[in-house]
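Raw record, unedited: 2OG-Fe(II) oxygenase
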Amino acid sequence: MTAGVNLQALFGEANAAFSAGDLERARELARTIIGQAPRVPQVRHLLALVEKRRGDTAAARAQFAAAVELGPNDPQVHNNYANLLSDLGENALALDHYRRAVALKPDFVDALVNLAMTAETEERFVEARQALVAATGHRPDLANAWLMLGLIDRGEGDLEAAVASLDKAVTLAPADSKAARARATVEAERGGTDPAPYYARAEALTPGDLELFIARNAADPGGPPAIERHLTAKVNANPDWLDGHMALAQLRGQTRTVPPETSFEAALADRPRERQLWYGLVALLNRAERHAEARMAIERARVALIGDAEAAQVLDHLEAITADEAGDGAHAAKLLAALPPGDFTLELVRVRHALRHGRPDEAARLVEPLTATGSALAWAYLGTAWRLTGDARHDWLAGDDRLVQTLDIADAMPPLEELAARLRELHVTRSHPIDQSLRGGTQTDGDILIRSEPLMRQVRKALGDAIDLYVSRLPPPDPTHPTLKEPRNGARIVGGWSVRLSAQGFHINHVHPRGWLSSAFYVSLPPGVGEDESDTAGWLSIGVPPAELKLGLPPLRLIRPQPGRLALFPSIMWHGTVPFSDGERLTIAFDVAPRRG
């Protein structure tokens, strides 16, 4: 330090005060030094840390910026500044400073791990993985880094790599419940070894964890009967457990053993003042399209919760949704007019109401701000409103034929008869999930495309290659387009399931709210489906809004199904299935996310 011995001593005293937690003394001393030697980066750095701990983020940011300007080659300053920026949600700038810290000190493990965590938040999984590989290379005993690496590998669909990393995390930190839970999850997803011992280890670390109970129960080799039996007992023992009631209702909706709402009703009989149970029951009935019963449940809830002003407002919100879906537009309009601007869900109710009642201009005005969230659902409604009003932006959004593509990939797949037989083994329920788009069929549970069996690995590889081909054929990048703005440096499959439709089965028109691209791969079709171009039964319909809106818009595209054919299209586009008369329509579906680095 250039200002002499006294300033050096003051700096030592300031550091000691900071270490002892005397922030005001440390702050006073740092300011004194800066008054005499304003261009010393170490002092600016110390003051930044003091201000951050005091909670003055603006002052901390100013001091960090000064420290970086005065001492641009100090990796610790960059790392600590990035930590503040990450806390503030400024992840892009935080990543820049983490990268600079690592460039200055490649073995800076803290910065590498921080870089990985922020990159993962930004879905930059390649960069996150590279940082973690480097961190564990320098510090092989870093359990948290192995855990993060395992979770990233799992997200990328590489379960074998995930197992190797998570085994190291569990060995290094045997008391870490997160590592034990992740290891159990991966073992269940692999579809091979019994995951029960892994779940038992995780449960021993977090006894009474109800969320973990659901995960373990879902992997029960006894299938739906055993799962329902165990979950029923646990819900009965924990009657306020909303997630448990929902999981049990979902299962019962597929097994048809008893009405899905049975556990809700039993719990409410003893706990009529439990708000969340009422809200859950109404949501369940609405998801099952039992809107008249949902309205009756709301009225029962109003009686049970009389005098509860907060509950009354929530019930008004739920009643507005229910009334509009039930076709009582006048009552819905009255309720919506009385409700203040709300969350995303409520605003979408207003959008649907405007569309349903012939006001597409109003719908467009309401939904356009919601697209800033990146929601596929918001974009789908905006596209519908533009289409109804004749807005040319609809052609920009959905008019290019290259957005919807079909690829015939049977040659890259395992024999389709073998694949069909395996998929049928994975369909273990009797009816469709309550909150999914299919009607008249079943859907597999979990992600079938990350199973370790060779057949599913071949399927995933063939689908990945097809996705790369699709992306290479897209229109040029457009930074304002919700689909075309994404990077073209690869893509990754997120989630994979199979749908088995039977006689009169179909998908309602819907979008996938978490996807970039969506899909349908045809494994097996009923006799005659797809053979005659004049008969579109069983075909994939693109661009038709939900039928309950009664908008009368025809499809933008109809995709002819063929065994071995893959259809890919933006997740913002409505899609559904034309019903067919008889037989089995067996498909694999998945979403695709962009690879951002």
